[in-house]
Amino acid sequence: MAGDLASAAGDYRLANRFFDSVLTREPNLVGVRFNRAATARFLGELESAEKDYDAVIAVDPADSEAWLNRSHLRRQTSVRNHIAQIETALGGDHPAWQHRMRLLYALAKEREDLGHVAQAFAALDAATKLRRCHLDYDIGDDLAALAAIRSTFTSSTLASMGEGFSGAAPIFVLGLPRSGTTLVERILEAHPDVVSGGEMSAFARALEHCAKASGFRGGGKHALIPFSKTLDPVMLGEFYHALASAGRDPSLHIIDKLPLNYLYIGLIAKALPRARIVHVHKPPLAVGWGMFKTLFVQGYPFSYDQVELGRYIAAFHRLMDHWSRELPGRIHHVFYDDLVRDPTTGIRELVAACGLDWNEDCLSPHKGSTANTSHSAAQIREPIHTRGLSGWRDFAPYLEPMRKAMLAEGLVTE
Known about the structure:
The protein is mainly α.
């Protein structure tokens, strides 16, 4: 339908107009109402989204996605929450494991909001175990890939690759998920010379295309890593720019906010010499807690087991230390805690590091009207605050497996 097409194209306001029109004629179409709730959430229309999710659940209590999304729209309170309803739903006999898993995530979120630490963690622990046991995943494969990237892209190798395409100056905002990348994106997006492309897969797609065009015959990521250092950086940069700038004003700096771009920092630096690279950092256990309690739509399979998550975060830190050492001066590091404690200083430094003139609008990212589809779609509508800085500490006694895994890998957790 037209609304779905508009939503897929990223025009959520147009999509909502189509959904409104359909629901005016046929108000009981729960699928359309669910989609309207989703687009309203992306647009920051959170009360409207909650009403639609309420209506979906009333008609179809088995729609566990609606339960989960509704729980994340706002901070739940002792007088306004859905805990009793969720627990009743968990007592049902729905056969799908995904249904129970989503309800457990919803329960964990609402229990955490109310400060019910033990009960919140019990629900979350059950949810993550349920998710992990249905994943075919070997963390050793990912850890080996990160180690291979470090050994392949040394300063001497990078120096031998030559310079790439200088006709574009994108801004890459990267880091682990739940580290604050969405806040940094919104700050920069408030600048009139910047447009956000969101979490684009453009660089990975450009890399795959250029590798095939250069004779790569497959073999997975472990074969692609050494092959990628032989690519023409001009071709890689040009193809990336063509993908990233399609449908956007080419005179603006485009934000690419895909967290996983940290894997490609060496190639990004060579293919796009004018690119600005911003790494957003949170303390290891803080970001680990944020990831552990998130049900990702796709990717990050290591985040559903504390030990695996701790090992991956340690490997990520080794990789970022490597990039900082091999590419001195190319990465601007934003420490999330410092940013929210002193936004004016941090934002001024960020804007300058991205080569932009100062603009006061960057100090009020919550006033932006553009849509956001990330897990932080609801939180970013609030002014910058420090409320969540220490929340993970309430759960620290339950995060010992993660902490010990980090320490075993040599990562200092504080």
